[in-house]
Design a protein that fits this description.
MKROS protein; two-stranded antiparallel sheet; 2 strands; mainly alpha; MKRN2OS-like_C; MKRN2OS-like; 4 helices
Length: 129
């Protein structure tokens, strides 16, 4: 994927086009929500400029990057007339399923990396069956 990652820390909101190659991308927008995708970037930019995300407002435990992400998701949900998510709901619904999947993938990758296994790509006709 190409794009910009917004993150919030003690220095405020940052926008980065690189340096996040090892992160997990979690899809938040359902496939049929094309109109929301069209406005996503401008909504996020507008949101990131709010006073709540100034550097002096940062607090490591209670007002951090997780808070930033959840508050943005809830702003979008509110605008669509959806119920707001608690920290626990956000974690359970969006974060845990993807981190579990990544953990399983990394475990398999590590096991394969330490064994004498050679992976051969399937021929095109075998992939189609």
């Amino acid at each position: 994927f190409a794009g910009v990652v917004y993150n919030y820390d003690q220095e405020g909101v940052h926008r980065a086009g690189s340096g996040w190659e090892q992160c997990i991308s979690i899809p938040l927008v359902q496939p049929g929500m094309w109109e929301l995708l069209q406005h996503w970037d401008s909504l996020l930019e507008e949101f990131s400029l709010e006073e709540a995300w100034l550097p002096n407002r940062y607090e490591e435990q209670q007002h951090n990057c997780f808070t930033f992400a959840l508050a943005f998701v809830n702003r979008v949900r509110q605008g669509r007339g959806q119920e707001l998510l608690s920290k626990a709901q956000f974690t359970e619904s969006f974060l845990l399923p993807h981190t579990r999947e990544a953990s399983r993938y990394l475990t398999v990758h590590q096991q394969l990396a330490h064994t004498d296994v050679y992976i051969v790509p399937l021929a095109e006709q075998e992939q189609d069956s």
